[in-house]
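Trying the structure run again after the queue cleared.
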Amino acid sequence: MKHIDNRRTYGEHLTPVQIFERYILPEIRGKLSEYIWVDLFAGAGNLVLPILEHIPQDERIEFFEKHIYLFDIQSELVDLAIANAIGYGIPQDIAKQHILQWDTIRNYPIFLLKLGMPVFHITNPPYLYLGYIAKHSETQKYLEFFQGENEGYQDLYQLALKNDLKNGLQNMIYIIPSNFIFGFAVSNKIREDFLKYYTIKKAIIFEKDIFEFTGTNVAICFFEKKVEPKQEALTFEGIKINKDEHKRLYTLDPKTHYRAGGDFEEFLYQYRARKPLKIKYYLTMEEVENNRGELAIDVIDANKFNGKSYEKMTIYVNEKLYNKIISNILFVRTVDTGSMDGRAGLYKIRDVFGVDGILVTKDTHRMHPIQIFINKEITNEVQILLKDYFNMILEYFRELTDSDFMTTYQYSKSKYTRKYLGLLQVRKLISTFPICDLNDKDMKYFEKLIKDGVAEDLIKFMNERNGRTEWKLGY
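Done. Tokens:
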């Protein structure tokens, strides 16, 4: 129970030695004697101490004294790291001099910068999101860290990055939540502040569990300080690991807050219709109560799922709400189910649930099926066209970017990594549907392109209509 409490209080997730051996050691093996190897959030020391395994036995003590410093805020972890160092042949008294209890977020150990050798920081820092910190009494002590010059940051790991930036470190290897690369508002500020000064040489992105007690999606990021600060697009090799490993080039552009998957966001911005459809989410119980009547309509209760299906019910409403519900036939599934026919996208309510509406009887939830209500009266046929357009563009970018613009939802044994599509992304993609901009001739051709299902042809058509240059991707 104590370890669970520590994870909640400190955001600690101890790193397996195998992570160091497989992914980090090959990148540093040839320069072990060139740096002081430091971990400011060392835990058991598994990201630095294994270096000793690659130092001859008779040279280890001298190497340790010249090249290794470890820190952790928890005394029991400091003791564990000291015990591990002893296991590598380091005398206890020497180990205690270089493995120290220290709150490195509050008080950066600047003496490291005066030892006459460059510091290389390898770490798995604490992950605690500001929203969690604020809601739990045991973590509220960290709120002070997010004030002053740190206001706007969203996680403890971001403060660790900021501290290294502030102290001018040249090289760092961080195991951090992959939202640093893929996140929206949660990471925009740290990316914009940090990537002005540092480039990412390489990233290893995990879409499977690597820690025992958390499903946090993580990446190993290899950072190197730029010669001079510059807001510029940066490109690096990423290795994505799920059921297998595959490489791809990532381009992070300051125009999209250095967020990977930015090509999808760029599409949403560039292709917004002149007269976009606007939507609202959710049929709520409050709206039903305010529009009681005698017309019966079958719905599912989005708040009552028994593990296999949603509970069905009949509600009685007035003509106005009846017509609103019956004329909006689509819902959005924001989360992949794991099956190929249950991926995030737009679906017809009756086809999936056998009813005409999706009612929220309690709190709204972004991961429930959500009925969408369009501000303009359009026929069922046009709504089906919207559905097909939406899903076609979505799948095109999922294939093109390996779904990098979406959030990894849950690790599973399904054929693909399950992802979450944000409601703002849904809204923006619907706003690119150019139905109100098309004349009859263009409409017929538009329908044909969607029926043919070739997204490249559809995008080319949209380019030509709007006089844009051909769509080019950063991947």
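The first helix runs from residue 2 to 10. Worth checking whether this holds up in the mutant runs.
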